[in-house]
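Support request, please re-run this one:
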Amino acid sequence: QVRLMESGGGSVQSGGSLRLSCSTSGFTFSESAMNWYRQIPGEGRELIATITGRGTNPRYADSVKGRFTISRDNAKNTAYLQMNNLRPEDTAVYYCRATGYLDWGPGTQVTVSS
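Re-run finished. Output below.
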């Protein structure tokens, strides 16, 4: 059974940083690309970052490019999202997801105040 658990969210002021973690189990982590999404209430989930199973070729949505960094530790079956220079418009619930699977974790709330 695929399980994903996001953590590391919180409340920060504009310009601050947070590091999100996505702990996983139930599938071969190193063989799956990992993705980070976010969702603002009333809107759909936005794909913001993705990374291959080997940890190469990170890609970002324009809205976060240059501020967020996706990474992974295959020995720990965990993906990360380092978020710097946070803005109020980054306020959302953040989710991770493995490519090829339909499962979602509960998400972690990020709130950025101006």
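The CA atoms of residues 40 and 92 lie 5 Å apart. Strands lie at 3-7, 10-13, 18-25, 34-39, 45-51, 59-60, 68-73, 78-83, 92-98, 108-113.
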